[in-house]
Amino acid sequence: MTQKIYLFMGIQGSGKGTQAKRVSEKLKLAHISTGDLLRETTGKLAKEISAYIDDGKMVSDELILKILKKRISKADCKNGIILDGYPRNIKQAKTLDSKFDVNKIIKLHISDRESIKRLSGRYTCPKCKAGYNMLTVPKPKKKGICDKCGEKLIQRDDDHKTAIKRRIKDYHKKTKPILAHYKNKIIKINGLQSIEQITKDILSKLK
Ligand code: AMP
Question: Does the beta carbon of 58 lie inside 6 Å of ligand 1?
Answer without folding.
Answer: yes
